[in-house]
Automatic annotation (TrEMBL):
Pathway terms, separated by semicolons: Cofactor biosynthesis; ubiquinone biosynthesis
Name by which UniProt lists this protein: Ubiquinone biosynthesis protein
PANTHER family from the UniProt entry: UBIQUINONE BIOSYNTHESIS PROTEIN COQ9, MITOCHONDRIAL
Domain COQ9 C-terminal: 173-240
UniProt similarity note: Belongs to the COQ9 family.
Family matches, as InterPro entries: COQ9_C, COQ9_HTH, Ubiq_biosynth_COQ9
Keyword Ligase: no
Origin superkingdom: Eukaryota
Domain Ubiquinone biosynthesis protein COQ9 HTH: 58-88
Function of the molecule: Membrane-associated protein that warps the membrane surface to access and bind aromatic isoprenes with high specificity, including ubiquinone (CoQ) isoprene intermediates and presents them directly to Coq7, therefore facilitating the Coq7-mediated hydroxylase step. Participates in the biosynthesis of coenzyme Q, also named ubiquinone, an essential lipid-soluble electron transporter for aerobic cellular respiration.
Main subcellular location: mitochondrion
Length: 275
């Protein structure tokens, strides 16, 4: 006689202590579990995961893996290997890197988002007295750009590869999203409350300044990155001059503005190289 049906029959009828359960949903997050045993009926309310809970659970796992993967970037680069090592370090199988369809691009994106969040927290603690002035303080913009750029320091040797990864078609949307989020946060927390066309000019200009400064930083071997700070200061001063020219005579400077916008777009995508 087949042993499997006998085992099933034993579970069904062989032990009176066996409790068959029936679950009835009462809402999206709970179910009533009714148990029948020797004529007695009990109802137990238990919580069940919703789709949102499942999504959050998966996102938490991915964040733990990504956080651990950063520890392996200096050795394995912004790669699937780092993700696999990160998964193992977080207590998951190495094949969990399959959770990241863009591979190293997802790791770079996580790093950028994390650094942006850290910068916002730092800027919130900066003195706010100067924010009352009509002109956005250039010094605070300079400090914000330098603070963000220096977060790359632990991965400076591998960052050219990260920048190349960001230019791949699948990664461009995330790259632009984090860049625009960065410049918007910098403008807002350094006092920009404009609601006119200057809102766009400042953010597009700042995006170009940041990407150009990031490229310069990779070639900077000066002490405390002083050359990069000088570069940032010069680019901010140039942007201020352009802003003054636009305010004085928008028509006359239109060609120069369009050229600057074109160069800025190239900088944002990492297409330009320093000479």
């Amino acid at each position: 006689m087949n042993k499997l049906p006998r085992a099933i029959n034993f579970l069904r009828y062989g032990r009176r202590s066996f409790i068959p359960l029936t679950a009835i949903a009462i809402n999206n997050t709970q179910k009533i579990v009714r148990s029948y045993c020797q004529g007695a009926k009990k109802e137990i309310v238990v919580a069940t995961n919703t789709d949102q809970d499942d999504h959050q659970y998966e996102e938490d796992i991915k964040k733990r893996i990504l956080a651990k993967a950063l520890d392996f970037v200096t050795k394995s680069g912004w790669s699937v290997d780092s993700l696999a090592h990160g998964a193992e370090a977080a207590g998951y199988p190495g094949v969990s890197h399959g959770l990241f369809p863009n591979g190293g691009g997802d790791l770079v994106h996580y790093f950028n988002v994390t650094c942006n969040e850290k910068l916002v927290e730092e800027m919130k603690s900066w003195p706010k007295e100067k924010l009352k002035e009509p002109k956005v303080p250039a010094q605070q913009i300079e400090n914000a750009i330098m603070t963000r750029i220096l977060m790359i320091e632990p991965y400076k040797s591998t960052w050219p590869k990260a920048m190349a990864i960001q230019t791949l078609p699948n990664n461009v949307p995330n790259c632009l999203a984090t860049l625009l989020s960065l410049v918007d946060d910098i403008c807002y927390h350094t006092g920009d409350r404009s609601v006119d066309f200057n809102w766009y000019i400042r953010r597009v200009g700042l995006a170009g300044i940041y990407k150009a400064s990031e490229l310069f930083y990779l070639t900077d071997s000066s002490q405390n990155s002083s050359a990069t700070r000088s570069f940032v200061k010069s680019r901010i001063r140039d942007a201020e001059l352009i802003q003054i020219a636009l305010n004085m005579n928008p028509v006359a400077v239109a060609p120069q503005t369009l050229t600057a916008a074109f160069v800025t777009a190239k900088n944002m995508l990492g297409i330009n190289t320093l000479k």
